[in-house]
Write a structure and sequence with these properties.
The protein is an all-alpha fold. It has two domains: about 45 residues, Orthogonal Bundle (Arc Repressor Mutant, subunit A), CATH 1.10.10.60; about 140 residues, Tetracycline Repressor, domain 2 (Orthogonal Bundle), CATH 1.10.357. It is built from ten helices and two strands, in the order ααααβααααααβ. Strands 1-2 form a two-stranded antiparallel ribbon. Helix 4 packs across helix 5, helix 5 runs antiparallel to helix 9 and helix 7 packs across helix 8.
């Protein structure tokens, strides 16, 4: 059975090499995450982040150019966790089918949304930030590329499923999450379930017979 391939480039910034510096960066990101949950994205400042982390503002600027760079690094960290959760949940499937892959992928996203409240604020509710919006679209494209390759390699979908169709499915799922988490920190379960049903029905149009019936691993 094919392996799931992921590729998650992170925004360009100075990468800390010493353990002490890595801990400092993680502390800054953790502080930013707490403030985002408490105050939202728009009111966040680099000075607030540094103070919450117990670090001088100059220390923050050693690693991040501005607030957007902090938000992107935080989003990248959480997206990396999300991608790992998708891989883990897909790997746990005993039977591969289009319906099973869609459900496993979308519920993996929800699992990380529940763990990473700041990500909900930054990514699902903070799309007015142009940098976050662009980064999110790039991530969607990578997820679509990975899932398309996985579905074709596993025999779940044939050549009629194009990369553009896979991207459309991911974008629709992404919009479902935006709506589900817009006013509900846990995500409206009815909306999420409807989204899973909708994306599954769309992709099953391009599934192989085995992809609809299921392939034991």
């Amino acid at each position: 059975m094919p392996a799931v391939r992921t590729h998650q480039p992170t925004p360009k910034r100075r990468v800390p090499r010493q353990e002490r510096s890595r801990r400092r960066v993680e502390g800054l990101l953790d502080a930013a995450a707490r403030l985002v949950v408490e105050r939202g994205v728009e009111s966040l400042t680099t000075r607030d982040i540094a103070e919450a982390a117990g670090a001088p503002v100059a220390s923050l600027y050693q690693y991040f150019a501005d607030k957007d760079a902090v938000l992107l690094a935080l989003a990248a960290r959480d997206m990396e966790e999300m991608d790992a959760q998708v891989v883990e949940d897909l790997g746990a499937l005993e039977v591969l089918s289009v319906a099973g892959v869609v459900r496993a992928t979308m519920t993996a996203f929800v699992t990380v949304y529940h763990r990473r409240r700041a990500f909900v604020e930054i990514y699902l509710r903070g799309r007015t930030n142009a940098a976050v919006h662009r980064f999110g679209r790039e991530h969607n494209a990578r997820v679509a590329e990975m899932l398309h390759a996985f579905a074709v390699d596993a025999g779940l979908a044939g050549p009629t499923l194009t990369p553009d169709m896979a991207l459309l499915a991911v974008e629709v799922g992404d919009r479902v999450f935006q709506l589900a988490f817009e006013n509900d920190d846990d995500g409206d379960p009815a909306l999420i379930e409807e989204g899973i049903t909708m994306v599954t029905a769309y992709l099953e149009r391009y599934a192989t017979p085995e992809g609809r019936a299921g392939i034991p691993r």
